[in-house]
Specification:
Layout: E1 6-19, E2 23-29, H1 30-37, E3 45-49, E4 54-69, E5 74-78
Antiparallel strand pairs: 1-4, 1-5, 2-3, 2-4
């Protein structure tokens, strides 16, 4: 598995993702990222996107992981 981007939040975190192709794009907290890695059901913020850029905002403290599936190369920035 390639390196998964992440960012630490003290309350609110947003990410902007620019896609080449339609993709599943989601943010997950640490607990749900572990579930994702084990192939278990997990909760996420995001979904399947065909338009770019994708903007997702989450509320909550801790580490959040950005997962992008199915779209090849992409660019992202947390803010």
């Amino acid at each position: 598995m390639s390196k998964i981007p992440y960012a630490d939040s003290k309350g609110t975190l947003s990410v902007k993702v620019e896609l080449q192709h339609a993709s599943d794009v989601f943010l997950v907290d640490s607990l749900n990222f572990q579930k994702f890695q084990r192939g278990q059901r997990f909760k996420y913020h995001g979904g399947h996107y065909r338009e770019t850029p994708v903007n997702i905002t989450v509320s909550g403290t801790g580490r959040w992981y950005l997962v992008v599936r199915g779209g090849g190369q992409y660019r992202y920035s947390f803010y």
